[in-house]
Amino acid sequence: MPYLPPSTARLRYFGGSTNRWAGLCRPLDPIDFERRDWIPGSGWPFSEAELRPYYARAADLIGLPTDRFDGDYWSGLTDRPLLPLCPQRFINGATQIKPTRFGTAHRDALSSSRNVTCFLNSSVVDLRVGDTDNVVREVVVATPAGRRFRVRARVVVLACGGLENARLLLNADDVRPAGLGNGHGNVGRYFMEHRVSWPGIVRLSGPDPRLWFYTRHAAPGVAMGTMMVEGCVRPTADLMRRERILNTHFALEPFSKGPTRGSRSLGVLRDGLGQWLRGGDMVADVDYHLGNILRDLDWLTENKLRKFLGIDKSSTTWLIKAEVEQAPNPASRVTLVHDVDALGLRRINLHWQMSAIDEHSVRRGIELFGEELERLNVGTATVSMLTGNDGWSRFDHWGHHHCGTTRISERPQDGVVDPDCRVHELDNLYIAGNSVFPTEGTATPTFTMIALTLRLADHLTGVLAR
């Protein structure tokens, strides 16, 4: 399945991509930080314990009611029981869902700050380094109107996302022809995404109220519509080691419950067409919505047929939703082409490549999860929707999570930034965001990005004090 143009997943305005963020929050698992011998290139230069206090601070910044993500805690607040999973094989967890728009939530704090100056409608177009040293001397900025200015600072931090961070480093090639931080050819490599799949079906033995914890539902004690929770099932670290698979995250959805992604897009296009016929603007991202409808075509047709025939939708059939981490792959990468944009920057050419272990992990993970559901007498699980030529379901879509490309590493030979997120080859250039992830786990990256940024802020406070 071809990847969407990367520009469809990012927005350039105050608050950045949080303006389009679905709000899913969950920390990476401890094993995500470990070096796993069956996954080349895996391993962070520090453990999950290093980020734990920063996860708590990230939860506060987002406005989450707690920094707890265990299934027992959230199930205990509701009348939704957990599946009694085998503790040697699977773990019950939870994802908190709160789409905080940072541009709105933190605007007042930024505007009233005495040491923050924010330039809107301005884009970084170059990083100038000295001819004989390893220092970024100035940052060149351009406006859409063609004006340019320069910023000089003791410390420079790039925080432009998994694609733009690499693009800026590669474009800054006046003094170093390969670009900045690219002495070992790692800038742009190891691009990772999350592919979200519905590859399995569970046919229930009978109604089972325990499954409803694993669907999205309102968070208890929180104002209606402001936050949701979704239960999840994850394999234990021991099971992943025994099976030699990647981390995988499972949730459940009753089949034919509405609305689906396709039905929502169908409604958006229907309403947009009516607005356009009345003289208004047509809805944006038409191709995105048509893609959702086409991927859900069988599903939408069955829904309409059920309604026409009056068939009950009480769901004795459930879908297994899987999100599998992508193994780091140096051949999956960002390069630049000669064509330039309006600001004179060479454009991105994305070579996204999956590995055999990615498909194997979701397939084997579903089989193992299905065995667990059958052990619990929930029903019969099958991996029946892996129908594409590439082994993936036609109902798949992407998380729009651009990870990797400036990975963190102990040695310059293995990555782009050091454990403090400083570019190995430069004294005063740091990188924030998910481009530094050496592995991505299954959790959506924003929560970990915020935690890493808070850790970097603490480090820079010490650097500037010295």
Automatic annotation (TrEMBL):
Which UniProt keywords are listed?
A: FAD, Flavoprotein, Oxidoreductase
Instruction: Read off the Gene3D superfamilies from this record.
Output: FAD/NAD(P)-binding domain
Cofactor (UniProt)? FAD
Glucose-methanol-choline oxidoreductase C-terminal domain segment(s) = 328-452
Q: Does the keyword Flavoprotein apply?
A: yes
Origin superkingdom: Bacteria
Pfam families (UniProt xref): GMC_oxred_C
Family, per entry: Belongs to the GMC oxidoreductase family.
Query: Which PANTHER family does this one have?
Result: PYRANOSE 2-OXIDASE (PTHR42784)
Q: What is this protein called?
A: Choline dehydrogenase-like flavoprotein
| Native source organism of the sequence | Azospirillum rugosum
